[in-house]
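Researcher: Let's run the pair from yesterday's discussion. Sequence first, then tokens, for each.
Model: Starting with the first of the pair.
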Amino acid sequence: MKRIFFTAWLIACLVPSLASAANQYVRVGATGLNNGSDWNNAYTTLPASLRRGDVYYVAGGAYGTYVFDDAVSGTTPITIKKATGSDHGTDAGWQSAYGTTQAQFSNLSFKTSYYVFDGVTGGGPGAWESNFGFKVKGGYHTIEFPAVVSDISIRHTDIEGNGRAEASDTDLIYLVNRYSRITLSHCFLHDTSRTMILTWPSGGSDLLIEYSKFARNGVKEHREAWSAGPESNVVVRNNLFEDIMGTGFIAIVNGNGDATNWSIYGNVFYWTGRYTDGIINTGVIMNRYDGSGGPINVRAVNWHIYNNIIANIGGGSFTALIAPEGPLSTYVVQNNIWYNNVAAAGSGGTDVDYNWYFANKSNGARGAHDIVGTASPFVDAQPWLTGNWALKAPISGIPLAAPYNVDLVGNPRGVDGVWDRGAVEFGGQPAQLSPPTNLRVQ
């Protein structure tokens, strides 16, 4: 009995109890005790040391840079959360303006694991570029992960570089060490000189990218929305990729090994035509593998590419193409729509007859059950300008199991008897995804 009691006591001492978790409060300009106990006595910035299990509610205001480096305690997270009118913890000292203004940060660094950084509002269909509770704006490594980390979620956050023409190479998410279980959800990554996400040479696993918009990178070397390497268990779903220049929208052009278990579905890849100061892309989704074992030699294994839209892309050497190398059997490609893309000279063909391009040219055939053509399948003639990707008629595809059975805007697929190709089901909820902004010719 004594041994059992001692063991229980030891566990209770070593493992923090969720019951001890507390809400703490952060507000620029607070003039109270600066102890985080309520909105009157809030910390004026995130304290240097955060407590595991606690939720840090943040009011609107400017908070500068921050380094997350708190020692882990099992799997207990720390949550940094934008305060809103409906969710702000205590009412003591609360004012509505704290919830309606944005909380802004400059560069962030995650050196340890188990964090949730949640702006609560903004992002996703209907709010791709607006209403974000959190904003992070900075150059070079805007949000960096300079150590081996896991279990970090960034949600509802506007992540912006210092512009496409910035002199230095800026990567918005700099995740170059090995990682696991990273989530990027309902975010807006935009206006940076190089990549939105750089993960090489991490070789990480379990990365989820969803309901986010990627727009307007610059003309630096290795500019892509995501410059990746030999990573595993990846899901890229229900995102917009707009005006991305470089090797590809998603390009595995780094490292050596296998990129295994990737699902890319429900996304829209497009060019508005407004930016002409660099190669738009050389592939939509591209990896480099020739079996040579060279320094850039990543084999794609068990990939599923379903129900995406690729539209109005032109200007690169292999433009508007999904371009894997290696065995065709490792890719399953179904239910996608290519429209109004222009393949450059030397790419092997046109948008109509050669969208599915293999650099070794041994498997030159597009995926089954994809639609390619010159007649628009969309209600709007130029949906890349209006943001309306609604279909004007059903386009029958191949039914798929969950999680592929819900479209980009939340419509269940196939309820009218037709599982449509592309990112949006015909006849469901409105497919108005909001038109692109910041449109200017360069």
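Model: Moving on to the second of the pair.
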Amino acid sequence: MQFIQPTETRYDLERLPSESLIINGTPMEELVPGFRTLSVGGRELRGRNINAINRQGNDGAIFLDSKLEPRVLPVRYKLTAQDNAEFRYLFNKMNALLQREQLSIRVLDEPEYSYTGTLESVPDVPQGRNIVVSDLTLFCADPYKYKDAVTVNGTNTVDILMDTFYDTYPQEITITPTNSTSTLTIRNGNKEIKLVDGSFVGGQPVVIRFGDDITVTNQNGSMTDKIALHSDLENFTLNKGDTVQFVEGGQISIKVSQVML
């Protein structure tokens, strides 16, 4: 089994503040001259929204379920401009950078993990000055953060060795059958993904990509219609210690990110 580390990104640690806000892979201090991150909050312990009903005539309540709410990251920053023209230019640049629906968000003190979020709110900045301290809030619909993806390769099987504290789904599974076959089966315990009614050529890789839409492709194009109806696509989670099997035999590669709160 081969373990491939993702490419590491290096930042100028001496020049940047310890909680530098990193947007789409680049610190804000490098994107906007005069910007300096003062703090990024909302990254510590997370409470759960509890669904319970009161006990009629009795103490306490009946617990039904709970869930994590979306994450909010409050950011405090300082912006320094030399004059009014530069002040306007810097805020124009910040608007252009942050007014995208989905941003990749990292913080320098934990750069291996990323959130996905959107600029939600900003207060009015102090008026009549070119050096301001203000705030912005980033809304993350997904409360989890994700480590840089790694790829695990094997022949017939791969073992999941990474820590999995929360539900962990693959990003991609690539299988290359040794021999031509009409079915492809990936099994993890009692969970199974099966492709049927196909002509899967030996030595030709088939890629399953997970996300909002799950797709299957090979070098000739889409094979998504080959997914068997009973396949466990939406609950094909991976846990530490699992052995994922490629039943028909051949090379199997899984790309996966560690999930944390």
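Researcher: Give me one sentence on the second I can quote.
Model: Residues 13-143 form a domain with the Elongation Factor Tu (Ef-tu); domain 3 fold (CATH 2.40.30.200).
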